[in-house]
Design goal:
Length: 352
């Protein structure tokens, strides 16, 4: 049986960037660049003619922006798209519009360019296996918009704010949208939440701000020494490991740079392991969402063995059923659920 290469279409308004990127991607044995387009209109013609497996997409282009391209074209051609951009606002708008993942444009030095190519190759390969979702129907408030009103949740939702309870969530590819769907369904008076979403420095702060504008509780980027408080979620900072430690009768986080754990920084395993070691896990809910690889699986197993209640996103609702699959297979997941059912299950469990 012949090996099937991933057929890639490059969409970028810079001729030099298109040509250089095509040369670099073609060096990988598993990738074939089948076409290049200078704008979305040219891209649609190539899509119709050559049927690529994956598209790499610039956001700022003439005639039609990459965001508009995603909103108009994805419903007709549900193809996985990896966005190439260094503007955080553009990246999140693209992810909300249906892109699978993103890579930041490279720095000028050779080392920076090679790291960019390596990352892009990896994300193209992941994207080729991903489920493509439809763009979000309703617009979401952007970072900097007034935060959503935060009324107290009904008494029937959660009776008390218990600082000894904790919710720990990990996600990767497809996780920005999955986290939005889970967090915006949770009530205001929820136990403290800690989150690791694989994302580079410079993006996690805006991601936290966008969640803060949509959730009934406060969301912030992690800072070293933050106390974990009910009614607040803390998102791991890019290139920093978030770990949970005990401080008297409360918990706080450390946020420090370090070597990659399970291939990532921030790492879900690093966070989950710290929860298993330092927290009364009988009062912990652990959640593992969509993502490639196995980061978080081993840490979740340790949490479950220590008494935590653990939830994994099911295959049908994952963009990439990697991390939850491994966690389920090794016995780390107690309950496997569709994405839209996870928030209700979290609330039911923390009420106990």
């Amino acid at each position: 049986m012949a090996f099937k290469k991933i057929r890639v279409l490059i969409v970028d308004d810079s001729l030099l960037f298109r040509q250089t990127l095509a040369q670099d991607l073609s060096k990988d044995f598993g990738i074939e660049v089948i076409g290049m387009a200078e704008d979305p209109y040219a891209a649609v013609k190539i899509i119709n003619q050559l049927h690529p497996d994956v598209i790499t997409l610039d956001v700022e282009m003439p005639k039609m922006s990459g965001i508009e391209f995603l909103k108009r074209v994805l419903p007709q051609y549900p193809l996985p798209v990896v966005v190439v951009s260094s503007v955080a606002e553009n990246v999140f708008n693209a992810l909300e519009a249906g892109a699978v993942d993103f890579v930041t444009k490279p720095s000028a030095d050779r080392g920076g360019r090679q790291a960019f190519i390596n990352e892009l190759v990896g994300k193209i390969k992941v994207a080729s296996t991903a489920k493509v979702r439809q763009p979000s129907a309703a617009p979401r408030p952007a970072a900097g918009a007034p935060a959503a009103a935060r009324p107290a949740a009904p008494a029937s939702a959660l009776q008390e704010l218990d600082a000894s309870k904790l919710i720990a969530i990990g996600a990767s590819t497809g996780g920005t949208d999955a986290l939005y769907e889970v967090l915006t369904r949770l009530p205001a008076n929820i136990p403290g939440i800690v989150i690791v979403q694989h994302m580079p420095s410079g993006f996690t702060k805006l991601f936290a701000q966008r969640l803060d504008a949509n959730c009934k509780f406060a969301v912030k980027e992690a800072a070293d020494g933050d106390m974990i408080r009910p009614g607040q979620a803390i998102v791991a900072a890019g290139d920093h490991h978030l770990r949970v430690v005990k401080n008297g009768n409360m918990y706080q986080i450390t946020s420090k740079e370090g070597e990659r754990v399970s291939g990532h920084c921030p790492s879900v395993d690093a966070m989950f392991n710290s929860v298993a070691e330092n927290v009364d896990c009988s009062k912990v809910v652990g959640v593992i969402l969509t993502g490639m690889g196995r980061d978080g699986a081993d840490g979740m197993l340790k949490m479950r063995q220590a008494g935590a209640y653990t939830i994994g996103q099911d295959e049908a609702s994952c963009v990439v059923y990697g991390m939850p699959k491994v966690a389920y297979e090794i016995g780390a997941v107690q309950t496997q659920l569709p994405l839209l059912n996870i928030a209700d299950d979290i609330v039911r469990h923390v009420q106990k």
